[in-house]
Design a protein that fits this description.
Number of helices: 10
Bound molecules: adenosine-5'-triphosphate
Number of strands: 20
CATH class of the largest domain: Alpha Beta
Structural class: alpha+beta
Oligomer: single chain
Number of domains: 2
Helix content: 25-40%
Order of helices and strands: EEEHEEHEHHHEHEHEEHHEEEEEEEEHEE
């Protein structure tokens, strides 16, 4: 269950590595319940923050407060470390059986052998690896090893589970299966978790809160919905996949928080309540831009309809990225099936639509 009580608080967190400041965060907190993902580009400090919060990396300045108690000496640090668990990209298993590995955290916590085996077997079962219990951990595939390391972490029923890029070393099907099992397990056990990941889709699937890191600071933190759909600046917008960025000026204010924004010599309708004449940036997700080859007179329920020319078509993961010009540049993602059905080609004119609610508008900083 989520509550607003901070389970872990960080104040004035400053971390230096190799003499250089790599983390500088005035305030940070983890609330009880739910999953927080730390996302950001390479080198932005995701792992450093995760290691700092799990007391595996020393603070150069600042303090951590767990359940209202400062972690400020060896004893409080050990006590805290006993109540958390960390899963790394590399599973770091002991040269022992899978069962012994999963039970190892329980041994350190003083449980007797029978109880250790009972709990370890339960988590092996939950992770779908009960059949591997007696196998040597050195003879596991990457996916099996990561499942073992996750079972070991859950087995101690941590107050906070820290996951550092837990899926990066896995192939796509293994990744897919593990993420869905982990999601279920996190919910079934109501575990509070923090995950560092460079993959925003993983973050969206697992977490209810997201913090975006930029050069060792938090650029934005909030609910996944707010961060993904209402980024506060251009950096966050581009990181969360709002690939189209348009500069404009608020031309008119309409009823019900609608605005008309002039973008070059075109006008687009958006939702928001800024003032007339304000300079703004408009962000649009490619998946919210639809294309059709119907005649331009055909009605669309979207408020923004333009005729656009296809500049470029390029494969983009499971989709195709279509770069368009509608008097302003716009990006759309479509499936291979849609591409084939519409027989799209570069140079062609198409009808381009997007809803007013698909346009996220922020004030342009001076
Ligand atoms: N062991 C280290 N010694 C010195 N500097 C380090 C060390 N590890 C990381 N750094 C530096 O700290 C900064 C943050 O790195 P960190 O690994 O936390 O970022 P990240 O967001 O997790 O990146 P990635 O996605 O590449 O793992 C970077 O500038 C990096 O070069």
């Amino acid at each position: 269950m989520r509550t607003d009580v901070p389970l872990l608080q960080g104040k004035r967190l400053l971390v230096k590595r190799g003499g250089i400041t790599v983390l500088d965060i005035p305030e940070f907190e983890i609330k009880k319940g739910g999953v927080l993902s730390l996302i950001g580009p390479n080198g932005s400090g995701k792992s450093t923050l995760l290691l700092t919060l799990s007391c595996l990396l020393k603070l150069s300045k600042g303090e951590l407060i767990f359940n209202g108690q400062k972690i400020d000496n060896r004893r409080s640090e050990l006590d805290y470390r006993r109540q958390i668990a960390v899963v790394f990209q590399d599973p770091l298993l002991f040269d022992a059986t899978v069962l012994e590995n999963v039970a190892s955290g329980l041994k350190i916590r003083g449980l007797d052998k029978r109880e250790r085996s009972r709990i370890a077997e339960e988590y092996l079962e939950r992770l779908g690896i009960a059949h591997l219990a007696r196998r040597s951990a050195s003879k596991l595939s990457g996916g099996e090893a990561q499942r073992t390391s996750i079972a070991r972490a859950f087995a101690v029923r941590p107050a906070i589970l820290f996951l550092d890029e837990p899926f990066s070393a896995l192939d796509p099907p293994t990744h897919e299966a593990l993420i869905s099992d982990l999601n279920r397990l996190l919910q079934d056990t109501d575990t509070t978790a923090v995950m560092a990941t460079h993959d925003q889709m993983d973050a969206l699937r697992l977490s209810d809160r997201i913090a975006v890191l930029q050069k060792g600071t938090i650029a934005q933190a909030g609910s996944a919905e707010v961060v993904m759909n209402h980024p506060i600046n251009e950096f966050v917008a581009s990181f969360v996949g709002m690939d189209t960025v348009l500069s404009g000026t608020v031309r008119d204010i309409l009823e019900r928080d609608r605005m008309i924004i002039a973008v070059g010599n075109r006008e687009i309708e958006a939702v928001g309540n800024l003032s007339q004449g304000e300079k703004v940036l408009c962000f649009i997700r490619p998946e919210n831009v639809t294309l059709s080859t119907d005649s331009p007179e055909d009605p669309s329920s979207a408020r923004n309809n333009f005729s656009g020319r296809i500049i470029r078509i390029a494969p983009h993961g499971l989709f195709y990225r279509i770069d368009l010009n509608c008097g302003f540049d716009l990006i759309s993602y479509i499936t291979r099936t849609s591409l084939d059905l519409m027989e799209l080609r570069e140079g062609q004119r198409v009808k381009v639509s997007f809803k007013a609610t698909a346009v996220h508008v922020i004030r342009k900083s001076a």
